[in-house]
Amino acid sequence: MPSTEPRLRLAPSLLSADFGALGDAIRAAEAGGADAFHLDVMDGHFVPNISFGPALVAAVRARTRLPLDLHLMIEEPLRYAEAFRAAGGDTLVFHIESHSDPEATIREVHRLGAGVGLAIRPDTPFSAVEAFADRVEQILVMSVHPGFSGQKFLPDVLPKVSAARRRLSSLGSAADVSIDGGITPATAGAAAAAGATFFVCGNSVFTGGPVADNLRGLRAAVTEGSARAVL
Ligand code: DX5
Ligand code: ZN
User: In a 3-state reduction of DSSP, which class is residue 176?
Assistant: First the structure.
């Protein structure tokens, strides 16, 4: 594959897996070709839902060698960065709308040796994170309102995916543009065509049909979509 081809990665979100059989879900996704796992940490303040903390991340870390992408939907990501890094997070994704200072949080996550992701909610413009684009490994564009899996994809966010991709290209950055929420074989192609390279998929992986088949369908959609990308 020529080096100019973007690396397209599928990251199943464990929020949609059966928490009583997480080990099985991890094995099935890994065997089915997942590239990373996405773990949605929710504190009941930044979002209305509560999910899990570092102890569960550590349990997942013990069961896979794939990268762990931690989506911190919490008010104070800086305060918890060290704990989530110690639990095994490879990328710590925090929200620009959180209470933590972005400069300090980026510095701290890098100091801890993890990649930085910067996330924006559907109603936050790309301009809110543009100034940090040269210092991050990922920009995450949310395509649902954060808090719950299984919501409907919001196509209005796609221009932000393209804006992020263009900005990163102009910087010569290999950072990912991640899309999160409502990604299915029917929506993943449009996200790839807009310039996304990292696809978070929850329900479309863990509900309805074998995990490996679901991942195959998603892989076909992102490959097809990225071939149409005009950036
Ligand atoms: C929503 C989370 C998403 C969610 C994705 O707040 O950030 O990662 O789990 O689930 P699906 O793919 O089902 O929308
Ligand atoms: Zn997420």
Answer: strand
Ligand nearest to the CA of 153: 1
Which residue ranges form the domains of the chain, and what is each CATH number? 9-225 (3.20.20.70)
pLDDT digits (tens, 9 = 90+) for 79-111: 999 999 999 999 999 999 999 999 999 999 999
Could you tell me if the CB of 38 is within 6 A of ligand 1? yes
What CA–CA distance (Å, rounded) separates 39 from 91? 10
Is ligand 1 within 6 A of the CB of residue 218?
no
Could you tell me the pTM of the whole model?
A: 0.97
- The whole-number pLDDT of residue 48 equals 97
The CA 14 to ligand 1 mean position distance, Å, reads 9
Binding site membership of 49 for ligand 1 (Cβ less than 6 Å): no
Task: State the virtual CA torsion across 58, 64, 67, 70 in degrees, nearest 10.
Answer: -30
Contact between 14 and 37 (Cβ < 8 Å): yes
User: Is any ligand 1 atom within 6 A of the Cβ of residue 138?
Assistant: no
Model confidence pLDDT, tens digit, residues 43-59: 999 999 999 999 999 99
CA 101 from centroid of its chain's CA atoms: 21
- Residue of 38, 51, 52, 144 to test ligand 1 pocket, by largest number of atoms within 8 Å of CB: 144
